[in-house]
Design a protein that fits this description.
Organism: Methylocapsa palsarum
CATH architecture: Orthogonal Bundle
GO molecular function: DNA-3-methyladenine glycosylase activity; metal ion binding
Distance between the termini: 41 Å
Strand content: under 5%
Number of domains: 1
Protein name: DNA-3-methyladenine glycosylase I
Pfam families: Adenine_glyco (PF03352)
InterPro entries: Adenine_glyco (IPR005019), DNA-3mA_glycosylase (IPR052891), DNA_glycosylase (IPR011257)
Shape: globular
Strand order of the largest sheet: 1-2
Number of strands: 2
Helix content: 40-55%
Largest sheet: 2 strands, antiparallel
Radius of gyration: 17 Å
CATH class: Mainly Alpha
CATH topology: Endonuclease III, domain 1
CATH superfamily: Hypothetical protein, domain 2
Length: about 200
Amino acid sequence: MSATIPGPDGRPRCRWCAATPEFLAYHDTEWGFPVDDDRRLFEKLCLEGFQAGLSWRTILAKRENFRAAFHGFDFHRIADFTDADVERLLNDAGIVRHRGKIAAVINNAKRAQEMVKREGSLASYVWRFEPKPDELAAPQIASTSAASIALSKDLKKRGWSFVGPTTIYAFMQAMGLINDHAKECVIRGQAADARMAFTRPA
């Protein structure tokens, strides 16, 4: 089976983006493009945690609801959430109402604050784990990697929750730490160009 399918313009795209219409824009404009914004990185870590046991389609459909419920994933605000906020979120039908995952976001917000104090930014920490070219698997073959295992292990050591190696690998794919677009995908070259022009956080 081919790793790609023809997009609306006739050019090849990664096969997974044909699963639902909303995947196409996400695939073409976000997935695999490098990110150094702490809020976006934190959001993605949280959403990947919420995805555990579910589909990305479910999470993407609810993303704007998540953003509203968690104040745009401003981890400084989330770190101050109280039990009342947890109850509010558990009653919010627009998100995934899972107490453990909600608690993980609040915990991870506090850990993110600690990391910014130590590292300067979440981005500067995360991008230290960018794998070297010779450490990459063939596109869309792996679900974990040495880099995702290392980042997952270090985050857990620092007290983060819902950050297993598979979750972290999906995070690294999405945030452009690796370019996992299929080799024939028309967006792979665009993501590669963006990664080439990207200034890694110091």
